[in-house]
Design a protein that fits this description.
The protein has helices spanning 2-30, 37-40, 125-134, 138-162, 165-175, 177-182, 185-192, 196-207; strands spanning 45-49, 54-56, 64-70, 73-78, 84-90, 95-96, 111-114, 118-124. By secondary structure, the protein is of the alpha+beta class. The protein is globular.
Amino acid sequence: MSLPCKSKTYRVFIYFNLVIPQLLSHIRKCCTIQVDNALIEPFFEHKHYKKKELLLTEGQHCFEKFFIIKGCVQLCYLKQNGTEQTIDFAIENWWISDFMAFPNGGIAQFSIRATEDTEVLSISADRQDKLLKQLPELEGYFHRVFQRAYAASQMRLRYLYEFSKEELYLNFLQRFPEFTQRVPQYLLASFLGFTPEYLSELRKKFIS
């Protein structure tokens, strides 16, 4: 009975060693630092989520942030009228969490849901602190990731104030064409601040 257990453990070990390099590649694109697989493996967990499964639930404590290995997730919250508002998406090589709640394990103001089958590397705030003590040069990497995310949020606010609805839709298509194929249209409509019916009209207009 021990042989299958060893075989399964070996497969998990090999697969984990295949996904960690994806994160390392992203680190090297952001920073000119060299980090070895073995140094960062102990700080991360490799997880799978089915489509529509929650990675984080609004109202619960947020203990993790996620690096997307494969798949797509939405960041959303429940409005007072009971409808769900999508405020962000994340695909391969993007980080996502409730970044306000994450550092101290606070109450999440948002939910994170897989919009397709998704694989992630997750890290807790405690493990991240330990990682940065061991590899302080990674501070620059996480700083750049957060800086880029904040800059993207600033630009999105500008577009919301400045663009017409048609311009907002066209700008999104130009900047993120992959999302139109991967994200359900009702979620895309929620993200853009449209009704699903209005988004459908826009799509018909520009397709024709």
